Amino acid sequence: MDNLANPRKTYAGLTARKAGLIACTTCGLVEHPREICQRCGAALHSRDPQSFQKTLAWLIAGMIFFIPANLYPMLITNTFGTEQKSTIIGGVIELIEYKSYFVALVVGVASIVVPLAKFAVIGLLLASIRGRWQSNPYQRLHLYEITEFIGRWSMIDVFVVAILAALIQLNFVASVNPGVAAISFALSVIFTMLSAQSLDQRLIWDSMNETSNHE
Q1: Would you identify the CATH topology of the domain 48-213?
Q2: Integer angstrom CA distances of residue 115 from 69, 93, 101, 142, 182
């Protein structure tokens, strides 16, 4: 009952790291420290030595490419010689004007809300690791898992553009082509996914374990 009243007490137990063991992040085998996992041959690290730097670098790259993804046109349509360019936000506004509220909501959430939320969550996790925050690591781990899961769904806008560009090519009558923003947005999503995958989840627990050692 004491552990339920004070969850921090549950983190003070013996960890694999304290016991001189190391877990393979590829196959899950727990063994004594060595360079190569004896089961799958993957490289072993108690903590990824470059995890923080790689995560931060990919995150910054994703944020940089997200800017032109919203400033430049995502879709270029040509109907009877008349060219029209649409940005992500402009496309959402047009969908609302055509009363396609559900589609506008899906595109807006997937292309604007989700990417911004991913930037914020990954940045928050990095700040908590660097600052040795003592907040509940379970909550931070759940945030990480949710961010990693929904990361791929931001590609829905790029998929729609690719499908339209492949299907609507009627020369002078009507044609659809991807704009510069499509490439920028795809790169932003990819870099953000790499950022999440580069984060060593075990770092989230280190600050709590270190705090527990002093209690």
Answers
A1: Butyryl-CoA Dehydrogenase, subunit A; domain 3 (1.20.140)
A2: 11, 19, 20, 17, 14
Give one word for 208, left, alpha or beta, with left for phi > 0 and alpha for psi -120 to 50.
alpha
Cβ atoms 129, 122 nearer than 8 A: no
Annotated domain spans of the chain: 1-46, 48-213
Distance CA 53, CA 203 (A): 13
- Calculate what percentage of the chain has a pLDDT beyond 70: 73
The pTM for the full model equals 0.73
- The alpha-helical segments, DSSP class H, found in the chain are 2-5, 51-71, 88-97, 101-108, 114-130, 137-150, 156-167, 180-198, 203-213
CB 194 within 8 A of CB 58: yes
Segment 140-155, tens digit of pLDDT? 878 888 887 877 677 7
**What's the pLDDT tens digit per position in 53-108?**
999 999 999 999 999 998 998 877 777 767 778 888 888 888 788 888 888 888 88
User: Could you identify the residue written with the tokens 């004491």?
Assistant: 2
